[in-house]
Design brief:
By secondary structure, the chain is mostly helical. It is about 75% helix and about 5% strand.
Amino acid sequence: MSARDCIRAVAESLREPRSVNWISEQADAAWSTTNEEVQELVDQGQLRRVEAGETTRYQPDYTRLLFEEIRTLIEKNTREELRSELAAITEEIEEWQATYDVETWEELEQSLADGDLTSAELRDRRDVIAFWRENEEDRRLIKHALELYSDVEAAREQMTDMADRATS
């Protein structure tokens, strides 16, 4: 992976605004290369500048990332595949709800304080909580993708029709 690829990977995974120095350290890249790449990402609309007093920090454009994820789901999956994945996620969550007698991952998290759990049970519950949270995020994205599927298909058909007319 090149230095620029590392910088992009770090920048795209930011969970909070960070400085060029921080990004440079995490990517193990020269400050000047990091600064150039960060400015390019800002110009492309992939990062946003956040002014914090005299410090400039950067964070991903989370709205753009959301729509890119939804678009990727639509482009790489049929509507039926998305429905099947949604059903599988729902089944898995229902199994956890029944197994642990809770309704949400937050309730399961609260059960970690139970003094009578073994270390293996604690590890198991922590793992389930992580998977549950990930499943909820995936479910949310899949629901958005299904809601927008027809609109994206129509836009894609319109683009294809326009391209066909332009080449005829």
